[in-house]
Amino acid sequence: MGTDPLALADLLRVSNTPGFERWREQVRRTGGCSDPIHLSGTTVTRDRATGDVLYSYSTADEPGGRLRVACGNRRASRCPSCAWTYAGDTYHLIRAGITGDDRKNVPATVRDHPRVFATLTAPSFGPVHNRPDRGACRCGARHPENDPVLGTALDPESYDYAGAVLFNNHAGQLWQRFTNRLRRELAARAGLTQRELKDVLRVSYGKVAEFQKRGAIHFHAVIRLDGPNGPDTVPPSWATVQLLDDAIRAAAVHAYTTITVPAAGDQPLRRFQWGRQLDIRPVKAFGDGSDITEQAVAAYVAKYATKAAETTGSLDRRIGNREVLDL
Ligand SMILES: [Zn+2]
Ligand SMILES: [Zn+2]
Fold first, then answer.
1. Are residues 186 and 111 in the same domain?
2. Are the C-beta atoms of 121 and 277 separated by less than 8 Å?
3. How far from chain centre, in Å, is Cα 178?
4. Ligand 2 centroid to 138 CA: how many Å?
5. Is residue 150 part of a domain?
6. ipTM, two decimals
7. Residues 178, 63 share a domain
8. Which of 122, 171, 193, 279 is deepest in the core (most CB within 10 A)?
């Protein structure tokens, strides 16, 4: 901290305020949240039979008459501190899911279970400005990395904006259908019925949604095959990484893995499926180049868990009034 005289005076004033210790305790407990929620009010707990007061609390006794609670926002643009806490929690949760962690009741033997890191993308809603690995954008330009035009429609007249919004809104349901279908594909490959599959295998996954530049959601997921009772149980020997890979590819493009949004107003009926880009990589404990390592997956997933629409340079909050839009 610099020695700005105004800040220094403020610091001295605050540190000499009665209740400073309690205030500092509150700040510490919010983990340094940048936008704490200020609560005020009272709570009284009474014995139901006698009516005696067992516990009472009032924020009137707190510094400034308020209790500060961490905002808990997961987006780094809104609260770096709370988002960081969330990213750490997510990292450990995902990491436990792929390497095992006694403290989280996931045995280390899950490392031997077939598991992949899969990315399921949104379909196209019309061509957008991009930076292809080779050559120029379809508009003829070679866009610099931070060009605000990236991800925007080449032809705004024909781009299906409503479709893009509707897809994001239904992406969770599409994921549900995908996982249902995945179980069927696994069962079919083993020559089992769905019911029989449950007795020998369970599909576990952890996923995060990421906004692409064009604003469409895509999913990153760690998908793992466990025995019938989860991570503690061994999956059947036929459940290989190759079989899982095959089943995911089949499930992703199957007709069942479709969301139908009925026509409404001037909007036509739409059917959504995943985009053609599908990336599946086996997760290995140690990287040999082609595969992705456990650490990399966990860090990647945690990173995206805290990044929201802000990564696209668009708004990450509700638009309350036009001034917010800064048009
Ligand atoms: Zn916060
Ligand atoms: Zn372009």
1. yes
2. yes
3. 18
4. 6
5. no
6. 0.63
7. no
8. 122
| Domain limits for position 50 | 20-69
- 40 and 177: one domain? no
**Residues 31 and 112 reside in one and the same domain:** no
Domain for residue 279, yes or no?
yes
Do residues 53 and 179 both lie within one domain? no
Report residue 195: phi and psi, to 5°: -65, -40
Which residues are bridge partners to 76 per DSSP? none
In a domain, 135, yes or no: no
- Ligand closest in space to the Cα of 148: 2
Residue 300 and residue 241 share a domain: yes
Cβ 42 vs Cβ 58: under 8 Å: yes
Q: What share of the chain is helix, strand, coil (3-state, %, to 5)?
A: 40, 20, 40
- Cα 119 from Cα 245, distance rounded (Å): 12
Which ligand has the shortest distance to the CA of 129?
Answer: 2
Total domains in the chain come to 2
Closest CA to 176 of 248, 232, 257, 105: 257
Spacing, Cα 85 to ligand 1 middle (Å): 9
Q: How far is the CA of 37 from the centre of ligand 1 (A)?
A: 8
Q: What is the DSSP letter of 46?
A: E
Q: How far is the CA of 139 from the centre of ligand 2 (A)?
A: 4
pLDDT in tens, 178-216: 999 999 999 999 999 999 999 999 998 888 777 777 888
